[in-house]
Design a protein that fits this description.
Blueprint lengths: L2 E5 L10 H11 L3 E4 L7 H12 L2 E11 L6 E7 L8 H25 L4 H7 L8 H10 L9 H7 L16 H10 L3 E4 L8 H7 L6 E5 L5 H14 L2 E4 L21 H8 L1 H25 L1
Parallel strand pairs: 1-2, 2-3, 5-6, 6-7
Antiparallel strand pairs: 3-4, 4-5
Helix pairs in contact: 1-2, 4-5
Length: 298
């Protein structure tokens, strides 16, 4: 049993609702998924309930946005199985505010260059917790300005090298703070898609800070990248995950649900990780107690 552990819904920048996503997983024979909306845990409880009815295991998760303070690049950390998800709410709100503020500037720039209104963009973002590039492109398609989500118009507006670049990058929380918050919430921290944001140096820096895993199988990772990440993971005893980064019609290259997955062995290691860690901690505590007792007898 494998699982697609990177899926987005309408709550962030996906085009499908939670129920539709789970029905799709059921139709495709995918037994395990993780809903990992950006800086949003709202779909976790509902997803679990709907999943149980459909015979689909929905792993609780969230994709937390971060800033690599050394490079200024955006980074994403996937959090799975948080014991205390409420402890992540403050960080999620902080990141949501940063994203919303940046989106307002982006929409102002879009309105100055194109005959599209904020009201239409907001309509396209209905149901989401924020405004994303996909919602702006959806509005442009509604107006007949763009004919596709990721085409010439997208590159003109969202390619940093374009003279018509409109995107304002949000000022997310530092990546070290995000990693610490995940651990404080009792979650498993996995660096998402290192190839997408060129986060290989960051991966090496986060390992000593307690990073638990890395997303190996992803649409942006070719065979060479996968082999490299597998080697790093094995060397540093990291968990390995995979997922399609599914966004429905808002996704790049029409990536379908289940096209990239976490293999059975790695999925089992992820789901059993906390239990193993507790057993190891218990053994270490018992060994320390025995050693202390022996010292006391001397």
């Amino acid at each position: 049993m494998s699982g697609d552990l990177h899926c987005h819904t309408r709550l962030s920048d996906g085009s499908m609702g939670i129920e539709d996503l789970i029905v799709l997983a059921q139709k495709k024979g995918i037994e395990t998924i993780a809903i990992t909306d950006h800086d949003c845990l709202a779909g976790t409880v509902r997803g679990k309930i709907i999943g149980e009815r459909a015979g689909i295991k929905v792993i609780p998760g969230v994709e937390l946005s971060a800033t690599d303070t050394q490079t200024g690049r955006i980074a994403h950390i996937l959090c799975y199985f948080p014991d205390f998800p409420d402890r992540l709410e403050g960080l999620c709100r902080q990141n949501q505010v940063a994203r919303k503020r940046a989106a307002q500037y982006t929409m102002l720039k879009a309105g100055a260059k194109l005959p599209v209104t904020n009201e239409l963009v907001l309509k396209c973002a209905s149901g989401s917790t924020n405004i994303y590039k996909q919602h702006i492109m959806h509005a442009l398609m509604e107006c007949g300005i763009a004919s596709e989500m990721y085409g010439e118009e997208y590159n003109r507006l969202f390619n940093p090298e374009s003279s018509d670049y409109i995107f304002m990058k949000p000022n997310f929380a530092p990546v070290e703070e995000v990693l610490s918050s995940i651990h404080a919430a009792g979650g498993i921290a996995v660096l998402a898609h290192p190839a997408l944001y060129d986060s290989f140096d960051l991966l090496e820096r986060l390992i000593p800070l307690g990073l638990n895993g890395v997303e190996v199988w992803h649409p942006t990772a070719n065979k060479e990248t996968v082999d490299c990440l597998v080697a790093i993971a094995k060397k540093n005893k990291l968990l390995m995950t995979g997922g399609s980064d599914f966004h429905g019609m808002y996704g790049h290259k029409n990536t379908s649900l289940g096209s990239f997955v976490t293999p059975k062995t790695q999925l089992s290691e992820l789901t059993g990780y906390k239990a193993r860690q507790k057993r190891l901690a218990k053994k270490a505590a018992e060994a320390a107690a025995q050693e202390a007792a022996l010292e006391a007898q001397k």
